[in-house]
Amino acid sequence: MSEQVLNLVIRKRQEQGEGVVVLDLVDPSGNVLPVFEAGAHVDVHLKPGLVRQYSLCGDPADLTRYRVGVLRDPASRGGSVAVHELLLEGRKVAIGTPRNLFPLAESATRSILVGGGIGITPMIAMAHQLTAQDSPFELHYCGRSRSRTAFLDELAEADFAGCVQTHFDDEGTEQKLDLPAVLGRPAEGVHVYVCGPGGFMDWVISEAQKAGYAEDHIHREYFQVEVDASGDSFEVVAQRSGKTVQVAEGQTIAQALSDAGVNIQVSCKQGVCGTCLCTVLEGQPDHRDVYLTDEEKAVNDQILTCCSRAMSKTLVLDI
């Protein structure tokens, strides 16, 4: 998968909360940047072989800059550490053009936005866009502690500040998120959006399902998931390349194909971004990603080669 790369400059860098860096990226010639919609992310090229995805958290109406917020994760596979150590004010950085896998539903009559920790980033852009569209919404921002939380000043000063509610683990019970009350009974046109740590997201999604929200009214974006590479070995046929490989237990399809000289572009390595998506011509995938919807997985004609495996003895891929 190829993409246009933008060569930008870090105009401003802020440390916010605990371990969050917020970067303003601009065109060095002062040109406006490509249009993006709320929910979009960009691929940030940190160094050779290290590309990570970060949500755009700025106002989509402001194309003079792209904003990203990155938490330094102690369990980082290199991405967040590289952002914090390498992306300094004045440095150049290459990024991909915005892609949106987490868009706002055009048909929504009201939106419930729920962000946990650094999962607030796409929600900020959504709040800006919904405000511009005069579309009703509420934004719930959950964090461990007010002192450790980023973007609080920005949200308090925003045009939509009246739509924002914050919830902190170490403060009184009266301000904690009462999710069943927030979700209520599903009304026509109400959509729920969630982003944050995996356990937090699973809780919000489960509560929305229990409340009766339809699956296509519950929208999610995962930042990081655990990849399970266990399972028996199986065969993969790369039809267009004319090669057949054996994928061992603990090995990914992408790794096995790469070892055989069939290169697939891989980015997140967790089944989140969709970069390594391939078409399945024959066989039954064992889907382990969070990129494809349940409906897309049921069709069994696509697979994320960075994490998913096979339920059949052989998979034939169009690559």
UniProtKB/TrEMBL annotation:
InterPro entries: 2Fe-2S_ferredoxin-like_sf, 2Fe-2S_ferredoxin-type, 2Fe2S_fd_BS, Beta-grasp_dom_sf, DmmA-like_N, FAD-bd_FR_type, FNR_nucleotide-bd, MRET
Keywords: 2Fe-2S, Flavoprotein, FMN, Iron, Iron-sulfur, Metal-binding, Oxidoreductase
Cleaved signal peptide residues: none
Keyword 4Fe-4S: no
Occurrences of domain 2Fe-2S ferredoxin-type (ranges): 232-319
Gene3D superfamilies the UniProt entry points to: 3.10.20.30, Nucleotide-binding domain of ferredoxin-NADP reductase (FNR) module, Translation factors
A Pfam family hit: Fer2
One annotated GO molecular function: metal ion binding
Cofactor(s) needed for function: FMN
Positions of the FAD-binding FR-type domain: 2-105
CDD domains per record: fer2, PDR_like
Alphabetical list of PANTHER family matching this protein: CARNITINE MONOOXYGENASE REDUCTASE SUBUNIT, NADH OXIDOREDUCTASE HCR
Record-given protein name: Oxidoreductase
Source organism of the structure: Pseudomonas jessenii
